[in-house]
Amino acid sequence: MLEPLAPLYVALVHYPVVNRRGELIASAITTLDLHDLARSSCTYKISTCYIVTPLKDQQTLSDRLLKHWCEGIGRRLHPERELALKRLSVVESIGAARDAIETREGQAPRIWASTARKYPGAVAHGEARELLRRDARPVLLLFGTAWGLSSSVLEEAETVLEPICGNNDYNHLSVRCAASILMDRLLWDGR
Amino acid sequence: MLEPLAPLYVALVHYPVVNRRGELIASAITTLDLHDLARSSCTYKISTCYIVTPLKDQQTLSDRLLKHWCEGIGRRLHPERELALKRLSVVESIGAARDAIETREGQAPRIWASTARKYPGAVAHGEARELLRRDARPVLLLFGTAWGLSSSVLEEAETVLEPICGNNDYNHLSVRCAASILMDRLLWDGR
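Predict the joint structure of the above. Result:
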């Protein structure tokens, strides 16, 4: 395991994202995504994965799920779920995640955005690994649900990471799998 | 993208696998796993991902899903799904997958098994990459659902791959995410 100098945080963003027609939406929580992101975050020792949604009912749903597995009967039956799910933190906006990190780390994080599309100036994953080792400022890496992060988020990010591509221009990984692969590329040192 | 000498096939195995008490079971199909494995296979140019289940109702369910996206209304609405899902092939056993590959390639595949546990003699992923480049025999890489492949499958495999580990002994990735990471480690050449 690569020990980065910079603490890496991730966020699964449900707003602002776009639908398949490119319209701005708030997407619904997929409970399975919460489990998968928590399990992958735990594997790569990412301390917090923010679940970003401004929708109150979706926050309530997420909180219920977390309570079940971290405090309720689920904790007794599957103790390893708590290890993972306690890393999730439900917040209403990307800004709230940024503020929480700033409070914890004493400095604001760099915002990195991921995308499945080609983006001008996007940074290769090997270079992003190096950035994590060279600069101690914390990083908040954003993953978009639905059809991806809105263009405003990409424009405001300090860094946009290259998409995960095979060699056939197919780029329709699920966000669960894309996030896992990206964590592995950024943090695994067996390469 | 690494172009391996050996054609790599994968299989998502629902039998024989074990439950959390280590008992032999046939697990249920998770339709989302089918989508995710197909999308990851497509990303890494894996021509066929076998869905192994001996249960007729589960085969029927899988076939319905594939028909919907590859022939039905789903194909018109989301054409990129067909690109991925047409790579799935539902078979009743690991042996049936092996036979299908033998018919297609003219020689039987090496069987590689993945596991989330430490296993004596397990092969590191970097070494497995090299094996794919040095030896042209096809490979069938097995992923177990539920609590993993049965011990008989691991014992009969030519090669067992090391688990995907962070450095905290937590090894509870979802099979969707584990399979994606392993495909990336074996086939991505951006390292």
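The longest strand of chain B covers residues 8-13.
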